[in-house]
Amino acid sequence: MNVNYYDTFILVAEDSKADHGEFPNVKRPKKTIGEIQFELLNGNDYKYTQEEVLFETHMLHKNIPEAARESEKAAFWGKSQACMRTSPLGKRYGWGLHFNQEGYVKLVAVESPEYRELANREDLNVTRAMKSKR
């Protein structure tokens, strides 16, 4: 099952109030999905695919032991999963997500020149993160 994006740029959500890329820091004992995804992606440009980010986030968020990885992977992908368009990074924290032609992702801050350049590239599929409210 392949749920990766290729040659795609996900813009921040239309209803996002973020005017810059913000570090998610909720200051709770348990890390949020946004914090985990940010920690995986920040400084790791084009290291992970969407599938890897989603599954690693699940493993860390649910505190699943490494020994259960393979059985958990089957269970996780056995049901439908929300894509990175639903990530808090694009909905709330001001981060665009650029997926290259191999399907690997990079965070791009909404205020950056790179964000504007990617948003206007005609050779990319450009879409938006989902709105927080309908």
Automatic annotation (TrEMBL):
Short name of any one Pfam family annotated for the protein: DUF6157
InterPro entries in the record: DUF6157
UniProt protein name: Uncharacterized protein
Organism: Listeria rustica
Organism lineage: Bacteria, Bacillati, Bacillota, Bacilli, Bacillales
